[in-house]
Amino acid sequence: MSELIGLRLKGARAAKVAAAVLALTAFAALAGCASKPPPEPLVAAAPPPPPPPPPPPPVDLAGRWRLAAAGGGACFMTFGNAPGAVQGTIAPEGGCPGNFFTSRKWTFEHSVLVIRDHKGQPLAQVSFSDGRFAGQTTAGGEISLSR
Description:
The protein is an alpha+beta fold. It contains one helix and eight strands, in the order H-E-E-E-E-E-E-E-E. The chain is rod-shaped, with a radius of gyration of 43 Å.
């Protein structure tokens, strides 16, 4: 009978060991399922392409221009730039009406020529039509630029 009790104890112990092994195996399998895969590396989106360059003025501005104010007064200005440029320098000659003696720079923005003073402030905005520029000063007076 003692042999039967020994077999029972060995069988019970073997059953406990088998249950423990089974539990560890199941736990390991579940742990593998519960883990997340490594995250995908983040790929930055390509930046949008830069906007196209602004169009140049409709005529080459380099050279001497006559600025005339509607209320009277006129002077000559020399515009400087590189071909196809959208900005350049201005060298006014004496006797310019209003504040145009302070003209130092021009920019071509949205199909409009802007004449700027030595501080970069706009003095006038003019558009090209019929071979000349015409528009208004920032004070509201009419001006024109012609060759």
